[in-house]
Amino acid sequence: MKLSRRLQSVAREAADQARDRLGDRLGDRLGRAEGPAEARVGGSAPDAPGRRPRSAFAGVLDGRHLWLAVDATPGTLALRPVGTEKVVPLTSDLAEDDPRFRSVRADLRGVPGGPGRFEVVITAPGGKVHRVWTPPLLRGEPVLTPAVDGVQWQVERAEDGTLLLAREDAPAAAYLLSITADDDDVVTMRLEGAPEGAELRIVDDESGALLLTRPLTREGDVAVATLDHRDVPEQVGVTATVHAGDLPVRRRHNELVRPDHAAQLPHVQNEDGDGPVFSLVYRWLSDGVLRVRRPEGGPA
């Protein structure tokens, strides 16, 4: 089976599962009787769409492509900048193969302009433009939309239920290329995007105080720094952000709500036998920024 067909199948299954999960959640909240997920979703929101096209699935899964499935409706899927009449058609690189949906997988790099919000619409054969309605969006999912090529896309919902896409500039950052620890637990970090002449800076998350600086050397376009855990202030419970100059050090593809569960970083064993198991840990938080932490707690 070709990869494109497999991806279509995955997206279609995701749309069905999202519809079912949303119906179950809304049904539980509203105390509605059990029934088909489509029926529960369709009548559950105060801004129920009437004859407006309904979204079954929408996601910018890789930070660049919009996966969109709308209940089968005549017309062409498009984006329209909020507050304007200009329509940008969505060109799909996958053929539709399910009569239940009007669907696209569209590369968003072709959408003109800069930061802003876009309504998802269908242009009907007669030229009338219909805004696509979406049920309340699910929250608490384990994945995030990663920023790609300096752009951050997000799926949103307007007050009237219109499905929106928001485009923003990605947060400024230096990106971690690699991090390694030697036998003495001295860590070496290799960074991309660090400003010329910058230092590695360790900044207390709570107070904003500068705890430590270390020089950054250059290997071509890559900045390299070493950090000895013995140089980090012995403040139990302190959490500090790693910066290259004024730029926080981030994951390049921050697609997980809990990236520390999937991306293992160095931990320094506590050899004193008193206090927490680890004396220093490196970790990612949900914002994708690198932290160092002096753990709290007693011995294991």
Secondary-structure topology with pairs:
Elements: H1 3-30, H2 37-42, E1 55-59, E2 65-71, E3 76-81, E4 88-89, E5 101-107, E6 116-123, E7 129-131, E8 151-157, E9 163-169, E10 174-181, E11 186-192, E12 199-204, E13 210-215, E14 217-219, E15 222-228, E16 239-244, E17 247-250, E18 267-269, E19 278-284, E20 290-293
Parallel strand pairs: 10-17
Antiparallel strand pairs: 1-2, 2-5, 3-4, 3-6, 6-7, 6-9, 8-9, 10-11, 11-15, 12-13, 12-16, 14-15, 16-17, 16-20, 18-19, 19-20
Describe the structure.
With 300 residues, this protein is mainly β. It folds into 2 domains: 3-169, no CATH class; 174-293, Immunoglobulin-like. The chain is built from 2 helices and 20 strands. Strands 10, 11, 12, 13, 14, 15, 16, 17, 18, 19 and 20 form an 11-stranded mixed β-sheet that branches. Strands 3, 4, 6, 7, 8 and 9 form a 6-stranded antiparallel β-sheet that branches. It has a 3-stranded antiparallel β-sheet with strand order 1-2-5, covered by helices on one side. Strand 12 and strand 13 (210-215) form a beta hairpin. The longest helix has 28 residues, at 3-30. It is elongated. Residues 1-7 and 22-44 have low confidence and may be disordered.
Largest sheet properties: 11 strands, mixed
The Rg value, from CA coordinates, equals 24 Å
Q: What structural class should be given to the helix and strand makeup?
A: mainly beta
Number of helices: 2
* Spans of at least 5 consecutive residues with low confidence: 1-7, 22-44
Indicate the percent of residues in helices. 10-25%
Global outline: elongated
Average pLDDT for all residues? 83
Number of domains: 2
Give the DSSP E fraction (strand runs of 2 or more residues). 35-45%
Biased composition (Basic and acidic residues): 13-37
Region (Disordered): 1-54
